Amino acid sequence: RKIENTNSEESPELQQLVRAFNQMVDRLDRTFEGQKHFVADASHELKTPLTVISSYTAMLKRWGRDDENVRNEAIEAIDKETSRLQSLIKSMLTLAEAEQEDWLNQEQFDVVQMLDETANMLQTTFQRPIRVKASAKVVRMYADKNKIRQLLVILLDNAIKYSKEPIDVTVLQIKNIVQIEVKDKGIGIPEADIPNLFERFFRVDGARARATGGVGLGLSIAKRIVDLHEGKIDVYSLPDVGTTITIQFRQKR
Ligand code: ADP
């Protein structure tokens, strides 16, 4: 509980202490509110597929033995919602891990090589061209390699999910800044939604994103990784034109 009005005749030290205490209470309140929201949102996200699964299970119990159509439809739906639950739980665990871990396992590596490897892997899996261009053959970064790879996978995965054309990735080194840009010619994001993109469970038009299998946690994880590296992430997007996400890191070495 905050301390209400202090007597203005109290010593300045005491008044300062009270102010500091109140600020700390405010911070704790905000963290606590955030956690409450997260639990509420997570429960909602987990309940939705479970409701679908239990409705189809009930249908199967009643009509499944006699009706092949019901059987097929139910199996399809249960299969889809189970995968959704799995990916939801996986993303929630990744986010919890990323939020808990405040240390970086930094090392020197070539980000162009990492991008080539990641692009190749995703290209093979999703059958989508990803073109990587770089300002130099080798662009060195001193950062947490695994986390940077995770961040790139999140951005590329979104570009693949929300567009149908080839994806362009550009790496630039300008003095001690390394900049990576992921550009797609996809459905884009309405301007009003851009400030909310990094919120946990946020999806532009829930129904549309749900159909693509998105759970709305990828960009929260991405932001956390960028923040841990004291970097910057920016989104430029136009509906029906495409989205460009830029990340920048200052090189310390
Ligand atoms: P999701 O798992 O739903 O993709 P994210 O946190 O990665 O979650 O992204 C949040 C939302 O931002 C997505 O649901 C989608 O609506 C929108 N979004 C993210 N990247 C793109 C993109 N490249 N093009 C269009 N929309 C995007």
UniProtKB/TrEMBL annotation:
This protein's GO CC annotations: plasma membrane
Membrane topology: Multi-pass membrane protein
Major localization listed first in the record, in broad terms: membrane
Keywords, comma-separated and alphabetical: ATP-binding, Cell membrane, Kinase, Membrane, Nucleotide-binding, Phosphoprotein, Transferase, Transmembrane, Transmembrane helix, Two-component regulatory system
Record carries keyword Phosphoprotein: yes
One GO molecular-function entry: phosphorelay sensor kinase activity
Keyword ATP-binding carried by entry: yes
Cellular localization per UniProt: Cell membrane
Reactions that this protein is recorded to catalyse: ATP + protein L-histidine = ADP + protein N-phospho-L-histidine
UniProt protein name: Signal transduction histidine-protein kinase ArlS
Positions spanned in the full protein: 199 to 451 of 451
E.C. designation(s): 2.7.13.3
Histidine kinase domain boundaries: 41-253
